[in-house]
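TA notes, week 10

Several of you asked for a full example with nothing omitted. So below is the full record: structure tokens for the whole chain, then the designed sequence directly under it. When grading your own attempts, check the secondary structure regions first.
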């Protein structure tokens, strides 16, 4: 349930909303320890001090945070218009907090910059200066941070560029139920470090599809429609079908270089599966207020009982396993 609802209308934002969106906002939800704790650091930067301002990064981040929290039970930290120090401090804090039972998703929407000579990519916080690299965030350095994190699965989702990603052959999940269960069991046990990126230097605004970027709209649609256990590769393949051909050419999902991938993949598990497992009402946790766009809290139906029970049996068998 979304505790505070903010309607995003360009040109009609009051003084209070302006103050809220100028500061980093923290959103916390109850962790699902029995299924592996899910965490997300969601960053949306629009209000740049030294670069062109963007239109959709903040609204994309708010909608993403709301969906991850409400449908998938993530413990979310939402940073809006974040500086370099704020961003790096939270990444460093997560590195010290997470364990092998944790899964972490880092979502970034904002300006990016690619070095034409080295191909290295950087995220640009709101205080970044165009010609001073010390004010940027190098994705190569972020990859090294992810390498030493204890979290079992880490996925970077960037509506921007990211170093060390390239097109790769899809890992097609098995079609039969028994084979898919074994395949999911295998990747759930293994460490993963993956990145899904738009490959752009700024989010591409799509006025036809609700004010989100093309990349964010596809990401939100696929996760919103999902009703079962969804692996990262399948998420990516479904997103490809929802973006225009020109955007499809730059989308990437691959292992992160320098980050010690071990054959696993990120798994998205709707909260509905947890409800079936408990067979009793889920207690409402004590939560901090959530700032979300008007449609961020919509939660589509979960999978049918038969599908959910099958995937639940799988998830229970791997939830506490160690490779």
């Amino acid at each position: 349930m979304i505790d505070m609802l903010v309607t995003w209308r360009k040109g009609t934002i009051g003084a209070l909303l302006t103050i809220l969106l100028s500061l980093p906002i923290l959103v916390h939800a109850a962790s699902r320890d029995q299924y592996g704790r899910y965490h997300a650091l969601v960053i949306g930067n629009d209000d740049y001090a030294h670069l062109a301002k963007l239109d959709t990064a903040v609204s994309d981040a708010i909608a993403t945070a709301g969906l991850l929290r409400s449908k998938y039970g993530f413990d979310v930290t939402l940073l809006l218009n974040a500086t370099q120090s704020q961003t790096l401090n939270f990444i460093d804090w997560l590195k010290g907090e997470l364990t092998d039972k944790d899964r972490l998703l880092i979502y970034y929407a904002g300006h990016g910059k690619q070095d034409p000579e080295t191909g290295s990519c950087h995220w640009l916080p709101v205080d970044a200066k165009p010609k001073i690299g010390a004010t940027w965030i190098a994705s190569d350095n972020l990859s090294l941070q992810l390498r030493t994190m204890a979290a079992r699965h880490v996925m970077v989702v960037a509506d921007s560029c990211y170093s060390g990603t390239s097109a790769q052959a899809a890992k097609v999940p098995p079609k039969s139920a028994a084979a898919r269960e074994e395949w999911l069991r295998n990747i759930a046990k293994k460490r993963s470090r993956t990145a899904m990126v738009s490959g752009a230097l700024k989010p591409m605004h799509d006025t036809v599809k609700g004010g989100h970027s093309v990349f964010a709209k596809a990401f939100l649609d696929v996760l919103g429609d999902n009703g079962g256990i969804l692996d990262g590769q399948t998420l990516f393949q479904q997103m490809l079908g929802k973006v225009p051909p020109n955007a499809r050419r730059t989308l990437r999902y691959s292992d992160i270089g320098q980050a010690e991938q071990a054959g696993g993949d990120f798994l998205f598990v709707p909260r509905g599966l947890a409800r079936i497992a408990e067979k009793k009402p889920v207690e409402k946790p004590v939560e901090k207020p959530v700032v979300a766009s008007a449609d961020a809290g919509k939660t589509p139906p979960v999978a049918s009982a038969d599908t959910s029970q099958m995937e639940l049996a799988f998830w229970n068998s791997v939830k506490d396993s160690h490779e």
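DSSP finds ten helices and 14 strands in the chain. Use that as a sanity check on your answer.
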